[in-house]
Structures are given as C-alpha cells and as structure tokens.
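Long-time lurker, first post. I've been practising inverse folding by hand and with some scripts of my own, and I keep getting stuck on stretches where the structure tokens seem ambiguous. Below is the full token string for one chain I'm working on. Before anyone asks, I'm not after the true native sequence, just a reasonable design that respects the backbone. If someone could post their per-position residues I'd love to compare against what I wrote down in my notebook.
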C-alpha cells in the first residue's frame, strides 16, 4: 500500500517535496484532468467545495486510478471510509483534538476506525481486505491543518502527538484568526512569523510541513524555504483566471478596444 501512496513516497525522498492541487468542483472528469496535470496529490475539498458524499467517492477513485494520491478535506473524519490516501482536517485547536483525530483515522489498536468499506482496496492497487486492514495505519497520512489562534498557540504540543504526519498551514484563515488577514496578496510580518513557527514545530518533531499557496511562484518560494507538502493551484481559482486571461488577450488593450469601437461606429453611419 505504501508503494501506491504517491504523496507518502514523495515526502520520504531526499528532497521530501510534493506539489498538489485543490479540487472544489464535483465530477470525476474534473478529478482526472487535475490528476493528469502532474501533481503528486489532489485534495478533494468537502468543507468549502461543492462536493457531496457521492462525488467524494467518485473523485477519490478517479484520482487514485491516475496514480495520484487523493486526500480528503473535511471537518468530519468519517471521510476515511471513502479511502483516500490521507485526510486533512481543519479547525483542530489542541493536542487532545489531534489525538482524537489519530484515533478516528487509525484501525485498532492504534485507534478506533471501523473496518468494512468495500471501496478501499481499489485505491491502493487492488490489495486484499486483509492487506488493507494490516497496512492502512502505516500507509495513510493524517494531516492536521493549523489555521486558528488556538492551534498556533498549541502547535508545538500538536506536533508531538504520535500518528500526526503533517502540519499543514492554512495562511488565509490563520491570518484572519490572528488579526492579520491577507487582503492584498501580501503577508504581515506577524503572519510570516506564525507560518515559520508552524514549520519549525514540524521539523523539530520529525513531521512534514505543508502550506496552501495560490500560485506556482509562491509554491516554489515555500519549497525553497523547506516546506514539503505544497498546494499549488485550485480549480475554482484557476478556471476563471484562465478564462479571464484569454478573454483579456482576445479583446486587446483599451486603446485597441476603443479603436475597434470607433471603426464600428464609422461603419454604422
């Protein structure tokens, strides 16, 4: 199973860097298009995205079939039944919250996750049910999102919780929660310090660090800083941006547009 978990393998390489994307639109075709773009992992967002339970199942299967790791993103840890390669859980604030997350994400004796999903094995190359049960605890990533003031204050304790694999920074919500929102695309120094604290806590406790970014350039910057799990693009952002860029290029400059309008007016006389 570990061999089929692309993000886990990437985090264990010498560079330890992996790049991923965020899916917010439903549809297995969307999942496949993103997965085939070359990412190591795709987050299926059921917290903010327009993705329900059925769409989550379809997305996870489609992404895994492309050899890319699907990750579930939700407040509810029940998403483990959809059999992604890992879970990202937001709005956890304390070490106790993180401990509870691990227990829900792991099979006994490490946790109390229930066994019985008939859909899990196909996401890992068709292992048997017995193999899945025996290997899942070591093959699935448990990722806690640090995005609140309380989580930041407790980040060192959260990082020490056994079974947590990645501390993932959500800079936009974190900025909002600590009083330094990202309003113009730039970070306040206090927010930069908070992000650095999260990365430091992860490194000191042999955990990977991750972060959400909004562009390839920004993702490269954080990779150079030592972050290992970096979200690079989101379908709900990339699609309209690409459409708007193409339309702007087609219309040309304001001068060109004004000239065309003038020509049209002349023809209309």
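-- Answer (accepted) --
I ran through it position by position. Result:
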């Amino acid at each position: 199973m570990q061999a089929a978990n692309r993000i886990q393998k990437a985090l264990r390489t010498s560079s330890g860097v992996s790049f991923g994307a965020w899916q917010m639109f439903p549809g297995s075709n969307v999942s496949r298009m993103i997965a085939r773009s070359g990412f190591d992992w795709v987050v299926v967002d059921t917290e903010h995205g327009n993705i329900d339970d059925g769409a989550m199942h379809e997305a996870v299967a489609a992404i895994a079939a492309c050899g890319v790791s699907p990750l579930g993103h939700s407040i509810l840890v029940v998403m483990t039944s959809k059999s992604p390669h890992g879970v990202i859980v937001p709005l956890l604030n304390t070490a106790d919250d993180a401990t509870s997350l691990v227990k829900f994400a792991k099979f006994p004796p490490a946790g109390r996750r229930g066994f019985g999903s008939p859909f899990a094995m196909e996401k890992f190359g068709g292992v048997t049910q017995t193999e899945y049960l025996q290997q899942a605890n070591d093959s699935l990533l448990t990722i806690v999102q640090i995005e609140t003031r309380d989580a930041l204050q407790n980040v060192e304790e959260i990082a020490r919780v056994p079974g947590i694999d990645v501390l993932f920074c959500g800079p936009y919500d974190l900025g909002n929660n600590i009083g330094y929102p990202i309003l113009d695309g730039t970070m306040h120094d206090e927010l930069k310090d908070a992000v650095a604290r999260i990365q430091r806590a992860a490194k000191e406790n042999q955990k990977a660090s991750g972060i959400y970014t909004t562009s390839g350039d920004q993702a490269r910057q954080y990779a150079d800083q030592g972050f290992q799990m970096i979200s690079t693009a989101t379908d709900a952002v990339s699609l309209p941006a690409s459409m708007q860029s193409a339309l702007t290029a087609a219309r040309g400059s304001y001068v060109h547009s004004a000239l065309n309008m003038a020509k049209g007016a002349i023809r209309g006389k």
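A couple of notes from the structure itself: The mean pLDDT is 90. DSSP finds twelve helices and eight strands in the chain. Happy to go over any region you disagree with.
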